[in-house]
Amino acid sequence: MSGMMLMLLLCLSVGTMSVVHCGDPTIFFTWNVTYGTLSPLGVPQQVILINGQFPGPNINSTTNNNVIVNVFNNLDEPFLITWVGVQQRKNSWQDGVLGTMCPIPPGTNYTYKFQVKDQIGSFMYYPVTAMHRAAGAFGGLRINSRNLIPVPYAAPEDDYTVMIGDWYSKSHSQLKKFLDSGRAMARPDGVLINGKSAKGDGKDEPLFTMKAGKTYKYRICNVGLKNSLNFRIQGHQMKLVETEGSHTVQNTYDSLDVHIGQCFAVLVTADKEPKDYYMVASTRFSKSVLTGKGIIRYENGKGPASPEVPKAPVGWAWSLNQFRSFRWNLTASAARPNPQGSYHYGKINITRTIKLINSASKADGKLRYAINGISHVDPETPLKLADYYGIREKVFKFDTMKVDPQSTPAEKITMEPNVLNITIKDFVEIIFENPEKSLQTWHLNGYAFFAVAVEPGKWTPEKRKNYNLLDAVSRHTIQVFPKSWAAILLTFDNAGMWNLRSEQPERRYLGQQLYVGVENIKRSLRNEYNMPDNALVCGLVKGMPKPPPYST
């Protein structure tokens, strides 16, 4: 791919020290973001391409790589990409969300610089501006283990990325107009697998090929807009080996429920008759089921895929039980040599409990989504810049939302920036309560957390006795089933401004998100990097003198 190379950085100036680290390999990408016309569902529509590709190119990195991506915005409106699951240690400046960065203006470029520090796993990227995610500009982001760190399975024959998601034939601008007018998005029109859906007419080209007897890794991510998807491969079982950066206990599944924003890595062995097989993704928990298919072809195989596609499970109790079967592999090493299980999260005292309740209501006659009664609005000045430049009081206030464990669903919605203040190093319990009839998926930038419980009903302190305090998977998303709750535990040890959001773009766009400010009170480089030299400025800070840098 144009603009990509690998090198070792021997030394760096102070100005770039905040995002690139001496001695670690650096990979470079140049991305041209453009509009194009494709027919993913058989109808021509405008899509967003990266270097002419839909989905966009894979980022193939290794633990501690420095990643430099020069993004040229050739669209007619501002654009911004976030790196979902990359923890951006001490570096929320590069997180690619509107609370930390100004969007890239049309006809200009911005160069992201970040390190995939102490991470492995299967992740993705996608745009956060407007409803651009409904048009493309998304892709896979993998972080491979370093050679010196053992992986708890044999090296696969090949490593494939599978981007699944529901899809609308309406354009991203039409969908945005619906939301701006106060209307909800209707049901999607289909399901895509890597931007396509097999027709089954004998003319479908394979998405992937396998050699008989070999084992392959498939990284499956749901980058869709509205629906959880069930994923399965005709005639083949899947051995789960990793979830969003954590090695898992290697259970075998016939199918996996992949909720929006989630990623799984599985091993699949080509041990069946050499011919074509379908991989299938179909919507879950929806009145009408939409299905997308893709072809896996055995090398030198003969024969089409059987038209009999395996059926998905029914109901969400099955999905809840599958979630409970996911376990952290305590003996495997992840990004560091020490086993994952050497971190005993279940023995840490909880510093603070935060309860978050999602809701749908109307403000000024228009549909809005909220958390504890506050529907987030992105100010023109990114929250991080307002804080850094010392004009916080002109842009937002901390802790306007009530988050105590006794919180109940709010009757009225307030529209304003929603920002929590959490003390660095606090060990926090977050409860997500979902009183609605639709499943919710949540994501937290900047962190991985322990998903210790998902249960029906309402949360009470007595429910803590049901927490998995031994081997819950450390990950960055959690689903909450209808009329249910979920609990996560984590240490807020990463200074910066971090987005906690609904992974359903409609709900995020209309306010179901907030930011967590983990303040670098001492303005120390030990806690957080300086604002990058090339950072874009906008809103009230445009034209202001840059504050003095952090000290050691």
Describe the structure.
This protein is mostly beta strands and 552 residues long. The chain has three domains: 26-144, Immunoglobulin-like (Sandwich), CATH 2.60.40; 158-325, Immunoglobulin-like, CATH 2.60.40.420; 345-518, Immunoglobulin-like (Sandwich). 6% of the residues lie in helices and 36% in strands. It has five helices and 34 strands. The protein has helices at residues 172-180, 316-325, 383-388, 392-395, 505-509; strands spanning 6-8, 25-38, 45-50, 59-62, 66-73, 81-84, 109-115, 121-127, 139-144, 159-167, 190-193, 208-210, 215-222, 229-233, 238-243, 246-247, 252-253, 255-258, 263-269, 276-283, 291-298, 352-363, 366-371, 374-375, 414-415, 419-422, 427-434, 440-444, 449-456, 474-475, 477-480, 484-491, 496-502, 513-518. The strands form seven sheets. Strands 10, 11, 13, 15, 16, 17 and 19 form a seven-stranded mixed beta sheet that branches. Strand 20 (276-283) and strand 21 (291-298) form a beta hairpin. It is globular, with a radius of gyration of 22 Å. It starts with 5 loop residues before the first strand and ends in a 34-residue tail after the last strand. Residues 1-18 have low confidence and may be disordered.
Blueprint of the fold:
Layout: E1 6-8, E2 25-38, E3 45-50, E4 59-62, E5 66-73, E6 81-84, E7 109-115, E8 121-127, E9 139-144, E10 159-167, H1 172-180, E11 190-193, E12 208-210, E13 215-222, E14 229-233, E15 238-243, E16 246-247, E17 252-253, E18 255-258, E19 263-269, E20 276-283, E21 291-298, H2 316-325, E22 352-363, E23 366-371, E24 374-375, H3 383-388, H4 392-395, E25 414-415, E26 419-422, E27 427-434, E28 440-444, E29 449-456, E30 474-475, E31 477-480, E32 484-491, E33 496-502, H5 505-509, E34 513-518
Parallel strand pairs: 2-5, 4-9, 10-13, 12-21, 22-27, 24-25, 26-34
Antiparallel strand pairs: 1-2, 2-3, 5-7, 6-8, 8-9, 10-11, 13-19, 14-18, 14-20, 15-16, 15-17, 15-19, 20-21, 22-23, 27-32, 28-31, 28-33, 29-30, 29-32, 33-34
Signal peptide: 1-22
GO molecular function, one term: oxidoreductase activity
Organism: Pyrus ussuriensis x Pyrus communis
